[in-house]
Automatic annotation (TrEMBL):
Positions of the UniProt region annotated as Disordered: 1-78, 476-533, 698-724, 889-924
Lineage: Eukaryota, Viridiplantae, Streptophyta, Embryophyta, Tracheophyta
Top-level taxon in the UniProt lineage: Eukaryota
Protein species of origin: Carpinus fangiana
Keywords: Cytoplasm, RNA-binding, TPR repeat
Protein name: Clustered mitochondria protein homolog
Length: 1252
C-alpha cells in the first residue's frame, strides 16, 4: 500500500526512516540468481578500486540525481496526498494516500500503526472539504468516493458493532499485541541503535574518549563453523508482561436471554496485581461484570469500568497493564515499519534456540491449539477457493490501476489458499482428516477439507532404485527367486493404476539389463500403457503439473482456467493440494470432458471452442498445433499434451488440468523411466530467442543458404551463438523484442518422443522431432558450457544448494544435469564441492523421507537423530538382525504389504494398518547404518544424476552446509548448538526440535513490475541513474500495492534502488533502501540465506561510505557468519568479503589487521580459483595498496607486478584494467626510487657529519 504515517515513522535515524519514495523493484528469479551473487561480488568487492572510483565520480552524478530527485519521487510514488485520520481514542494521525488505494489498504495500515493497532471493529467516514461525509465500504477505492488530490479531506474512525466473529478476532488481536513475538527485529536495526547510543554518549560533555573500533571475529567464524551456529539466532528480546492471563470464560456461550440484550462473549482476566475479573463483551463495549463464583452475574461491577476495546478496558482496571502496554506500543513505534508487517508465507528456520526456552503455561495458546481447524474458517462458511480465484481472474485489467487491483486480489487469494493447504495437508498426513472414499484401497484415498482436494504422490526415483538394488541382490543369491519377485513387481505395476507405485515404465527401467528377454517383453507390455494412471502420482509429475499450471496462468488466456495448486512435503510424505473443480464431487461428470484424454490416448475428446482457447495459450508457450490419433485411429488436432484434460465445470467455466508436459520432452533423456524429463520453459524461451536472432541475422545478410540445408544451418547457428552472444540467450529478454515475428514461429510438438500416435506425414513428424532435438542439443552444447564458463569466471556465483538450483533453473538447466556441471568444474574446488554436496543432499533427502514415511509418530525424533548420526557420524544399525541393505529390506516389506493393500508403498503400510505390521515398522529406522546410508546415496547419485561420488565423499562433504541444506529440504529444525561432527554420534534425540512442511506453490508474480525492473536494470547498466531510479521506484510502488512489502521481489527492488543511490553518492539514501532489503530478506528468505549475507555486506559498505566504520565492521562480521553457514569458508565470496574488511581496517589505520585479511583472501583465491585468476589479481592489487599505505613501496611494486602479469595473460595489454595496473606499477616504482634516493641523501649527510 502506498499510504504511510508521519507519526508512526521510524525514529532511529536516516538509515531506518520511513521514506516517502520507497522505491525499488526486484528482478524476476532468473535474473536475480545471476545478479545477486555476481553483483555483490563486483559491487562489494571486486577490487579496492571500486570504492576509489565511486568516490571520484560521485560529485557529478550526485548533482544530476539531486536535481531530478523531485521528479523521481513523483513518478515513483504514484502521487501521494496527505489525509488526516481521527482515531477512536481522539488522536490525530496523518496518512499519505494514493487515490487508487482501497479502504482495505487503509485498514491494514491502521492495523500496523502503533497508535491504532488495537482497534479492529470500526467504520471509516470520509469528510470532504465541502462538508459532506461519506461512509467507506471496505472494497471501495478512495477515488470512487472523493477526490483527495484537492486537499481538505479527513478520515474518522467510528466504533462499529461487534458480532460473534469480529469480537473473537478482536480478542485474538489483543492477545497478539500483548506479545512481542510478532515483532521481527533485525540485527542491523539493533546494531544501528547501539551505535547511535554509543555515539551520543561519546559526544556528551565531559566524555572526550574516542571509541576504539573492535576487531571483528571474522576469521574465527571460518575456522570454527560448527561453533558459530549458536551465534545465528538472536536471543529473543525481553518479554514485556502486561497481564497474567486472558482466557475465554467457562460461562460461554452467552445464555439466550443475555444474547437478546447484546452479550456475545465472556472473558476471565487475571491482572499483574493479582486481581481476577470477569469481563463481558457486548455488541458495543467491554465491561467488568459482577460475577465472582460459579454463577454468572451480568450486571456491571460497582466500579462501572467499560471501554469499546479490550485493551482500553484493561488499561482502566490495571495500572501495571497500562504502563506495560505503553512500553509495547513505544517498542513497536521505534521499530522499522517493515518489522511490524507480517509475512504471508514465512520461510522455515532450520535452527532453533539453544538452550531450548522453557515452555510456560499459556491458556490463550492452549485454546488456540485445541480449536485447530486445519486451515478452515472457525465461524461462518468455508471459503470457496476456486470461485474466489476464478472471480479474481475475471477482474477487468485494461488499465494499470485495474491490473494492480487484479494482481493484488490474485496474490492474496492464492497466498491464503497456500496457507490453508498447508494446514490441511498436516491434518491429512496426521490422520486427523478422514478420506472421502474410505472403502477404497488406501492407495486410492482422496481427501477434501476446507474446499481443498488432497492426494498423495510417491517417490518414483527411490522406488526405481529400490527395485534395482533388490533385483541386483537377489540375482546374486538366487536367480530364480529374483525372476519370480520381479514378475510380481511387474504385475503389481500393471494392477496398481493410479496408486503411488512406479508405473510400468519405471518397472521396465528397473529390470532392463538385469533379467532375460522374456522379463523384458513382459515388462515392456506395461511400459507405455498405464502411464497416465500411474505416473500422475509421482514427485516428477506433481512438480511438472505445478510448473505447467504456472505457465498457463502467466499466459492468461481469457476463458481458460486452472485450479489453485500447492505441493506440501511433510514427515516424508508429499501431498498435492488443489482447489475443488466445481461439480466434480456431485455425481458422474464424465460427459464434462471436452478436451484431451483420461485413458492415455485410447479415447480423445475434442471441442472447437475449447481448442481455440488452448491454441491461444499455446502461442504463448511455443506449443504447436498438431494431429494425434486415438486408439481407434481417429485424428484430432491438439495444441497441448494428450493426457491433459479440458473439463467444463458446473460453473460453465473451461478448466485445463493435468499439465505435466507443457514443454517438450528432453531428447537427451528418452529411455525408460524418463517420461517426465522435460525441458524447462526458460530454455525454450532462450532457444527461441537464439533462433530468432540467427534468422534475423541471416535475413539482414541476405544469406539464402540458411534455409536450403536445415542441418547445416543449425550447426552454423550453434557455432555463431556459442561465439557471439550466449549471454543474451538466457538473460537479456529485452534485447530481442524486435524479432517477435520469427521468435513466435518456433513451435514445439509436446507429444513427440512419447507413446502417443502422431498423425501427419513422416516428414512433419521428423521435423517436429528434429526441432525438439535441436532444443535439447542447445541445452547440452550451448547453455551448459556457457553456464560452466560463467561459474568459472564468477559471473554466476551461487553460495549454496538453493542458489545453485535457482541459477540452474534461471539458465534453463534441469537439476538432473548437475552431474555434468560438477564434471565441468572439477578444476575449481569450491564449485565441485558445491555440486557434489548438492547431489549428496538430494540423494540423502529421498532416503531420509523414506525413513520418515515408515516411522511412527513417537519415533520421529529418534529416527531423524539416528539418520543424522549415520550420515554425519559413524553409526551402526541397532536392530538384532540387520538387513544387508536397507533399501532391499524396504522393498521386501513393501512388496509383502502390497499383497494386502495394493498401492502406495511410500505411504508406509504400518502407519495405517496397525497390528503386527505396525510393530514391524515401528523401529525400522534402527536398521539404518552409516554404511547402508552412504551406499544408498552413492547408488542414487549414480542412478538419478549420472554422477560417481568419490570413495572419500563421506569425509569430503562440508558437514555444516550439508546439514543446513538437508534440514531445509526436509523441513527439520535442529538445536543451534555446537556439534562435535568428528564424533561417531554427534546428534541426540533432544537436538531434533521440529518437523515443518516444505511448500511449493503457484503464487502469481506481478509481470508489470517485473518488466519495469528489467528495463531499469538496462538503464542502470548504461549509467542512466535518474531513469533507472524512476523505473525501480515505479516498480516498487506497484509491488507494494500488489504483494505488500514482505516479498522477495520487493527486496530486489530495494537492492537496485540502493545501488542507484550508492553510485549517485547518496549514502544515507542507499542505507535506507538497503536496510529495507535486509529486513525483507531476513523475513522472506531466512536469516542465513546468501542474499541476506550480501545485504549485510552491502550495508557495511554503505556505512563505511559514511565513515561509520565500527558499525560497518559489525555488519561485516554478521555477513561472514552467514557466509560461513551457507557456503563454508572455502568460497570466492568469502575472500571478496575479506578484501572489503581489510579496506575498512586500512582506512582506520589498522594495517596489521588489514594485511591478515588480505593475505587470507589471497590464499583462498589461489587455492580455489588458481594463481592466474582475475580475483587473485584483485588480491595482489589490494595488497599492493596496503603496502603502499605502510610505505613499503618495494613490496607494493612486487605485488602490483604480479597483478599486471595476471591481467596481461587474462585480458591482454590493451585492456583498461591492465593499463591501470601498469600505471600503478610506475607510481610504486617511482616512490620506491624516491625513498631510496632520500635514504642515500640521509646516509651521505650522516657520513659528512661524522667526518666533520
Amino acid at each position: 500500500m502506498a499510504g504511510k504515517s508521519n507519526k508512526g515513522r521510524n525514529r532511529r535515524g536516516a538509515h531506518a526512516t520511513a521514506h516517502s519514495s520507497e522505491s525499488v523493484v526486484s528482478p524476476d528469479a532468473p535474473v536475480k540468481d545471476n545478479s545477486s551473487a555476481s553483483e555483490s561480488t563486483k559491487a562489494d568487492s571486486n577490487g579496492v578500486s571500486t570504492l576509489d572510483e565511486s568516490t571520484n565520480v560521485t560529485p557529478e552524478v550526485k548533482e544530476s540525481e539531486t536535481a531530478n530527485s523531485a521528479s523521481q519521487q513523483k513518478q515513483g510514488d504514484l502521487h501521494l496526498y496527505p489525509v488526516s485520520v481521527k482515531t477512536q481514542s481522539g488522536e490525530k494521525l496523518e496518512l499519505q494516500l494514493n487515490p487508487g488505494d482501497s479502504v482495505m489498504d487503509i485498514r491494514q495500515f491502521l492495523l500496523d500503526a502503533p497508535e491504532t493497532c488495537y482497534f479492529t471493529c470500526y467504520d471509516l467516514l470520509l469528510h470532504t472539504k465541502d462538508g459532506s461525509t461519506q461512509h467507506l465500504e471496505d472494497y471501495n477505492e478512495i477515488s470512487e468516493v472523493a477526490d483527495i488530490t484537492t486537499g481538505g479531506c479527513s478520515l474518522e474512525m467510528v466504533p462499529a458493532l461487534y458480532d460473534d466473529r469480529s469480537i473473537r478476532a478482536h480478542v485474538h488481536r489483543t492477545r497478539e499485541l500483548l506479545s512481542l513475538s510478532t515483532l521481527h527485529s533485525s540485527l542491523s536495526t539493533s546494531l544501528a541503535l547501539q551505535y547511535e547510543t554509543a555515539q551520543n554518549k561519546a559526544s556528551s560533555p565531559g566524555d572526550t574518549a574516542k571509541t576504539e573500533v573492535p576487531e571483528l571475529d571474522g576469521l574465527g567464524f571460518m575456522e570454527d563453523v560448527a561453533g558459530s551456529l549458536s551465534n545465528l539466532l538472536l536471543s529473543s528480546s525481553k518479554e514485556i508482561k502486561c497481564v497474567e492471563s486472558i482466557v475465554f470464560s467457562s460461562f460461554n456461550p452467552a445464555p439466550s436471554y443475555r444474547r437478546l440484550v447484546g452479550d456475545l462473549i465472556y472473558l476471565d482476566v487475571v491482572t499483574l496485581e493479582g486481581n481476577k475479573f470477569c469481563i463481558t463483551g457486548t455488541t458495543k463495549t467491554f465491561y467488568v461484570n459482577s460475577s465472582t463464583g460459579n454463577t454468572l452475574d451480568p450486571r456491571p461491577s460497582k466500579t462501572n469500568f467499560e471501554a469499546t476495546t479490550l485493551a482500553g478496558l484493561l488499561q482502566k482496571i490495571s495500572p501495571k497493564f497500562k504502563k506495560a502496554f505503553r512500553e509495547i506500543l513505544e517498542w513497536r513505534a521505534s521499530a522499522h515499519p517493515f518489522e511490524n508487517v507480517q509475512s504471508l508465507l514465512p520461510p522455515n528456520s532450520w535452527l532453533g534456540l539453544y538452550p531450548v526456552p522453557d515452555h510456560k503455561r499459556d491458556a490463550a495458546r492452549a485454546e488456540d491449539a485445541l480449536t485447530l481447524s486445519y486451515g478452515s474458517e472457525l465461524i461462518g462458511m468455508q471459503r470457496d477457493w476456486n470461485e474466489e480465484l476464478q472471480s479474481c481472474r475475471e477482474f477487468p485489467h485494461s488499465t494499470p490501476q485495474e491490473r494492480i487491483l487484479r494482481d493484488r486480489a490474485l496474490y492474496k487469494v492464492t497466498s491464503d489458499f497456500v496457507d490453508a493447504a498447508i494446514s490441511g495437508a498436516i491434518g491429512v498426513i496426521g490422520r486427523c482428516i478422514p478420506p472421502i472414499n474410505p472403502t477404497d484401497p488406501e492407495c486410492f484415498h482422496m481427501y477434501v477439507h476446507n474446499n481443498i482436494f488432497f492426494s498423495f504422490a510417491v517417490d518414483a526415483d527411490l522406488e526405481q532404485l529400490s527395485k534395482k538394488r533388490a533385483s541386483n541382490a537377489n540375482l546374486k543369491v538366487e536367480s530364480s527367486s529374483s525372476l519370480n519377485s520381479s514378475s510380481d513387481k511387474a504385475s503389481s505395476c500393471l494392477l496398481h493404476g493410479e496408486s503411488g507405485t512406479p508405473n510400468g515404465e519405471k518397472c521396465e527401467g528397473s529390470t532392463t539389463g538385469e533379467h532375460d528377454s522374456s522379463m523384458e517383453v513382459a515388462s515392456d507390455v506395461s511400459a507405455e500403457t498405464q502411464l497416465t494412471e500411474s505416473e500422475q502420482a509421482t514427485y516428477a509429475s506433481a512438480n511438472n503439473d505445478l510448473k505447467g499450471t504456472k505457465a498457463y496462468q502467466e499466459a492468461d488466456v481469457s476463458g481458460l482456467y486452472n485450479l489453485a495448486m500447492a505441493i506440501i512435503d511433510y514427515r516424508g510424505h508429499r501431498v498435492v493440494a488443489q482447489s475443488v473443480l466445481p461439480g466434480i464431487l456431485q455425481g458422474d461428470k464424465s460427459d464434462s470432458l471436452l478436451y484431451g484424454s483420461v485413458d492415455n490416448g485410447k479415447k480423445i475428446c475434442w471441442n472447437e471452442d475449447f481448442h481455440s482457447k488452448v491454441l491461444e495459450a499455446a502461442k504463448h508457450l511455443h506449443l504447436k498445433e498438431h494431429t494425434v490419433l486415438d486408439g481407434s485411429g481417429n485424428a484430432f488436432k491438439l495444441a497441448a499434451p494428450v493426457e491433459c484434460k479440458g473439463i467444463v465445470g458446473s460453473d460453465d467455466r473451461h478448466y485445463l488440468l493435468d499439465l505435466m508436459r507443457v514443454t517438450p520432452r528432453d531428447a537427451n533423456f528418452t529411455g525408460p523411466g524418463s517420461r517426465f524429463c522435460i525441458l524447462r520453459p526458460e530454455l525454450i524461451t532462450a532457444f527461441c530467442q537464439a533462433q530468432a536472432a540467427e534468422r534475423s541475422k541471416y535475413k539482414s545478410e541476405g544469406d539464402a543458404q540458411a534455409t536450403t540445408d536445415s542441418s547445416e544451418a543449425s550447426d552454423v547457428a550453434k557455432q555463431d551463438i556459442t561465439k557471439d552472444g550466449k549471454d543474451e540467450n538466457v538473460k537479456d529478454c529485452a534485447s530481442l523484442l524486435a524479432q517477435t515475428e520469427s521468435y513466435d514461429e518456433i513451435l514445439f510438438n509436446p507429444n513427440v518422443f512419447t507413446e502417443f500416435k502422431l498423425a501427419g506425414s513422416q516428414e512433419e513428424i521428423a521435423a517436429d522431432e528434429e526441432n525438439v532435438r535441436k532444443g535439447s542439443s542447445y541445452l547440452t552444447d550451448v547453455v551448459l558450457p556457457k553456464f560452466v564458463q560463467d561459474l568459472c569466471t564468477l559471473e554466476v556465483s551461487p553460495m549454496d544448494g538453493q542458489t545453485l538450483t535457482e541459477a540452474l533453473h534461471a539458465h534453463g538447466i534441469n537439476v538432473r544435469y548437475i552431474g555434468k556441471v560438477a564434471d565441468g568444474t572439477k578444476h575449481l574446488p569450491h564449485l565441485w564441492d558445491l555440486c557434489s554436496n548438492e547431489i549428496v543432499v538430494r540423494s540423502a533427502k529421498h532416503i531420509l523421507k523414506d525413513v520418515l514415511r515408515n516411522t511412527e509418530d513417537h519415533d520421529f525424533g529418534p529416527a531423524v537423530s539416528h539418520f543424522f548420526n549415520c550420515f554425519f557420524g559413524s553409526c551402526q544399525a541397532v536392530g538384532a538382525k540387520v538387513a544387508a541393505n536397507t533399501i532391499q529390506s524396504r522393498t521386501h516389506r513393501k512388496d509383502q504389504g502390497g499383497h494386502q493393500s495394493p498401492g502406495k508403498p511410500s505411504r508406509g503400510q504400518g502407519r495405517w494398518k496397525g497390528g503386527a505390521s505396525a510393530r514391524k515398522n515401528q523401529s525400522s529406522f534402527m536398521n539404518v547404518s552409516s554404511e547402508t546410508v552412504w551406499s544408498d546415496v552413492q547408488e542414487f547419485a549414480k542412478l538419478k544424476y549420472q554422477f560417481e561420488l568419490p570413495e572419500d565423499a563421506r569425509s569430503r562433504v562440508k558437514k555444516i552446509s550439508v546439514i543446513r541444506n538437508l534440514c531445509q529440504k526436509v523441513g527439520i529444525n535442529v538445536a543451534a548448538r555446537k556439534y562435535d561432527l568428528n564424533s561417531s554420534a554427534p546428534f541426540q534425540t533432544s537436538d531434533i526440535l521440529n518437523l515443518q512442511p516444505v511448500v511449493k506453490n503457484s503464487v502469481p508474480i506481478c509481470s508489470e513490475a517485473k518488466d519495469l525492473v528489467e528495463t531499469g536494470k538496462i538503464q542502470l547498466a548504461e549509467g542512466m541513474l535518474s531513469e533507472a531510479y524512476t523505473l525501480f521506484s515505479e516498480a516498487f510502488a506497484i509491488l507494494q500495492q500488489v504483494t505488500g512489502p514482505m516479498h522477495r521481489e520487493v527486496a530486489n527492488c530495494c537492492r537496485y534502488l540502493a545501488m542507484v543511490l550508492y553510485h549517485a553518492g547518496d549514502m544515507a539514501g542507499a542505507i535506507m533502501q538497503q536496510h529495507k532489503e535486509l529486513i525483507i530478506n531476513e523475513r522472506c528468505l531466512g536469516l542465513d540465506h546468501p542474499d541476506t549475507a550480501h545485504s549485510y555486506g552491502n550495508m557495511a559498505l554503505f556505512y563505511h561510505g559514511l565513515n561509520q566504520t565500527e558499525l560497518a565492521l559489525r555488519h561485516m562480521s554478521r555477513a561472514l557468519l552467514l557466509l560461513s553457514l551457507s557456503s563454508g569458508p572455502d568460497h570466492p565470496d568469502v575472500a571478496a568479503t575479506f578484501i572489503n574488511v581489510a579496506m575498512m581496517y586500512q582506512d582506520i589505520g589498522k594495517m596489521n589487521t588489514a594485511l591478515r585479511y588480505l593475505q587470507e583472501a589471497l590464499k583462498k583465491n589461489e587455492r580455489l580459483l588458481g594463481e592466474e585468476h582475475i580475483q587473485t589479481a584483485v588480491c595482489y592489487h589490494a595488497l599492493a595498496i596496503a603496502f603502499n599505505c605502510m610505505g613499503a613501496f618495494k613490496l607494493s611494486h612486487q605485488h602490483e607486478k604480479k597483478t599486471y602479469d595476471i591481467l596481461v595473460k587474462q585480458l591482454g595489454e590493451e585492456d583498461s584494467r591492465t593499463r591501470d595496473s601498469q600505471n600503478w606499477m610506475k607510481t610504486f616504482k617511482m616512490r620506491e626510487l624516491q625513498v631510496n634516493s632520500w635514504c642515500l641523501r640521509v646516509v651521505e649527510s650522516w657520513m659528512i657529519f661524522i667526518c666533520s
